[in-house]
Amino acid sequence: MPVYLFWGEDTYRLSKAVQALHQEVLDPEWLSFNLDKIDVASGSDGTASVIQGLNQVMTPPFGLGHRLVWLTNPLVGATADLLPEFERTLPDLPPTSHLLLTQTTKPDGRSKLTKLLQKQAQVTEFALIPPWKTAQILQMVKRAAHDLEVPLTQAAGEQLADAVGNDTRRLYGELEKLKLYSLSSDAQNNTKRIGLEIVQHLVSSTTQNSLQLAETIRQGQTDQALGLVAELLNLNEPGLKIVATLIRQFRTWLWVKLMVVSGEQDERVIARAAEVGNPKRIYFLKQAVQTVTCQQLRQSLSCLLDLEVALKQGEAPRSTLITTVVEMSHICQANPILS
Prior knowledge:
This protein is of the alpha/beta class. The chain has 16 helices and five strands.
């Protein structure tokens, strides 16, 4: 059945999937006649917009190709009135008409409308990889590099993963840049692999500065931490991206500390629990958490989660970040009995 529900926070991959669907079902010569995009607002206007889209998708296409009706955010604030409309429309869709529903938020699994779509539609999730799952991010980098035919060394791939994090849009942009560099710098030998130094030179890494920020906070160096916050914001680094890196680092430290305190000695077991891709990193992580307690790391992580919520609610990034960094530095400055 030609019904699709795309959802998730990875808007880049979602938009690429939408483009692929456009190319698959629409004839370019008849695009303006057979593509309808409706941005659905919440409330009664939203209900009317969805009903308009359902009526439109029942119309046969003009000329060649198929018809595609695209509704954005149709399930956000959807009312019960829409359920019978979908129940009546979906079974009778013409084979040449396609209905696409997209949204960034997860559909409410308790809703009868969502349950209907799960049965009747092709549901695809485009979730962002959590920033602390570095092994998965590295695999994503490797897959993207393979798809774009960018010959990266292992070290270059790891550096690129550290630089872009879970930002898929930036990943593909940086890989396109590296591919152009590879082709222009070595036209006679395109099989040459791109190494660490090239990635360090061409790909700016504010993630590394965010990791330095995490280190200074852990060491209770308030002045240095505030300087790094100012530097990152002056480089237009998004506040939520800074927070994502800090959460990833403090979460890793907390897991390592908990495993060490529990008496675990096997670095591979600790690496698995902390979701660290390279077990050799555990030695250095164990050294880093020697001077902080589980309680300090828990409190710091709690501060970061509160900060993330505040930023998503529209708080000013600079003042909110500064306040939280000062609070976390003071937490880590305390010198209780280490545990």
